[in-house]
Amino acid sequence: MSIDRDTAARVAKLARIRVEENDLPALAQEFNNILGFIEQLNEVDVEGVEPMTSVTPQRLKRRKDEVTDGGYQDKVLSNAPDAREGFFAVPKVVE
Question: What is the pTM of this model?
């Protein structure tokens, strides 16, 4: 796939990046270089290679998955402008 000047301008517009007209050919070339690198990566045989989370082998820290109520309802509700019966009280918006 090759990116031309018009496609580079469209990508810049979609990304909300202002690119001067005379800089568009260089941007298109940079996009083409990036796509070339991606094509090179697609040529690598990764069959049987385990996914990694880091370049150094390490085990992720784990915690017990326990359901709790948080234990600090009073602290949370202390910031509310209006709290009733353990809940945030808000104005009625539906009739």
Answer: 0.51
